[in-house]
Structures are given as structure tokens and as C-alpha cells.
Amino acid sequence: MRVAIIGAGAGGCFAAANLKRQGGMEIFVFEKTSKALQKVKVSGGGRCNVTHACFDIPKLVERYPRGNRFLRKTLHRFTPQHTIAWFEEREVSLKTEDDGRMFPVTDDSQTIIDCIWGEMMKNKVQVRYHKAVERIEKVDEQLMITFKDETSFLADRVIIACGGFAKKEQFSWLEHLGHTIEYPVPSLFTFNLHKNPITELMGVSVANVTVKIAGTKLTEHGPLLITHWGFSGPAILKCSAWGARILSEHGYDFIVLINWLGDVKDNELQEQIAAIRREKGKVLVHNKNSFELPKRLWSFLLEKAGVSENTNWGELPAKQQNRLIQILVNDEYPVSGKTTFKEEFVTCGGVKLQEVDPKTMESRLVKGIFFAGEILDVDGITGGYNFQHAWSSGFIAAESINAEVN
Prior knowledge:
With 406 residues, this protein is of the alpha+beta class. It is 33% helix and 24% strand.
């Protein structure tokens, strides 16, 4: 049996690592670029966020804006515990951080790459680079893959694990097979604040904010990072994941509301400030930051509220106090565009899930074709969830083909 895997990313390489070469099976991986496992390499700041320590499947599937029902079946088959065990059996230990994200103890994504690649080499997997697919056709009981370089390959089974595409036209070869494509739009992107003064605070992070998108029900909590182009960090990325289609419909032109104090309400803040005025009335407002905000951000917000550097808490005018309260709990910023990083690009959209069997990852429309990873209409929030889907779907596809050979 000749197995062709389209895409040398997480899902494709993990499938290749789990295929068993019994019965003379030959395994080939075709990658359109010049490198393999690139998202694994760059994820988590080069540390690789392998999975998440959420071991309750009903809770785990809630971390995926799309694919919830489908994942209830796939994630039961290959869970985060299975992921941990798979790597540990190959002498790669994972550690859990305070927020539940799991990384290799080495803090180096190359550890994960070497582990998967080592298993692929044991399987004598042959990897071919610069092989972009033009079309796939049924030829009797086999599948003919034609590449854009005009070469072709005849396979018995094909695992499609080429990741998501930015444009619907890029899915045309899958549509020609009869599959339906849910329209792709970006997910997990950062917000651009065009020439906004707050970008001068690039590098400043706040541990827990509440992010809301004006005019929608989108709300997220978590860390926020100020960058030279706008806002990033988990709270922003989660908001963009859940709001991928809504924000696309807005043309990425909207108002983001920030509560810099997490979930503190304005009436609670009024009481806190009243206590500060009573107890620290002679202290300069600029010198007394009772809200654990970064110093540069505190100075920026005070300036935005019109509070001068020589104003003390006891003499803070009511107008400026009210303005400061509004800014701290409901600060407004106009967003005009998004930023996505090519290596970490995640797509909302892809192959319609009703056309794929979650028990085997095989196409319900074309026998012998399987899917793994982001090519499907599945995407998770930041935190290791997209990799877990890649491992689970890649493993199930491989096991399904293994079962056919036995």
C-alpha cells in the first residue's frame, strides 16, 4: 500500500509517525514549501505549546469556536493524556504552566520536531518538498495526485493535512473531488490601532483585562500585550477566534473596549478611589498606583484622563476622576485592520465536517481520502488546542489506514 500525505505540518507528520509499515506499506509526504513542521517550530515563542492540560473532554471542546460536535468524537479517541503519553514513551516529557498550556521541559520546539521526525524516519517516510497539489482524481481503486510542477503520483490512500488556506480558490482541488468548503477567514489575529498613541507603550503587558467588541456579544478575559502596531496577547487572540466571521463582516473596522482592571465595575472603582482619597489624599495621583498596572501604562491613562503630574488624590477634580474611572474600566480604541503572522496563521473555515467520518477521518464522499488538522473546518483558541486537534486527527487517520492493512 502506498500512502501519500499532503502537507508536512503537525497533522501530516504526526500521521506519518503513527503509520505502521506492515505489509510493505510505503509512506510519502509531499510538502509545498521547502521546510517541514514550521508551525511547530515557531509556536509558543519557539517553545511549542504541544497541548493543554484540560482533561475533561466536554470542557475541552468548548475551547474550539468551530468543530465542537465533531471534536467530541475525535478528542475522545486521542486525548491530551494520549498526547502526553505518546511523547513520554519517546523520552520527551511535557510540563504544565499556570495557565494550563503544556510545553516540552526543554522549552525548545526542536525537541518535539526531532521526536516526530525520528518516528517518521523509523517508518522510512520519504519527504518531497516543493510539491504543491494541482488536483486529485480517482483512477480505478487508486488516487492520482497531480502536482503543479506537472509530475504525478499514484497512491492507494491519501491523507490531506496541508493546513488552512487564506482564499477559497485555493481549495478548488478539494471542491473538484466533491467536497464543500466553508468559506475561509482568518482566526487568531491581532488588532491594528493605526497611529494610536498607546502603541508607543509597545512591550507593556497587563496580566488580566476584559476585552469587548462594541456592538457585539464578544467578550474575553486574559493577558493583553501592547505592540508597535496595536493589541495582542491571549485576550485579543481569543476574541479574534470567537469573532472570526463577525469581525470579517465588519471589515476589521470596529471599536474595542478594554477594562484594564479585569472585571472591576465602575461603582466598585468609585469606592476604591474614595478610600484612596481618604487614606492617601496628599499623595500625587501619578505616584500612587493602587491597581497594579504597569507604570508606563498608568502614566499614559492619567494623561488621557487629563490628570496633571502635580495633582494629588485629595484634590482630584470630580470631572477628571469620572474620566479616569471611565478609562480604567471602559477604554475605547478604534481598530482598523488585523495582523496575522504567516507561520502562525489559523483559518476559520475549510472542509465541511459533515463530509468526514470522525471515527476514521475518512471522506464520506471519496473512499481512500482522509483528512487531518486545519484543512477541516475546525479551529481552537490559543493555548495548544489547535495542535491537539492536529495530533488527534492525524493519529486517527493513521490508525484507520493501519487497520486496513492488518
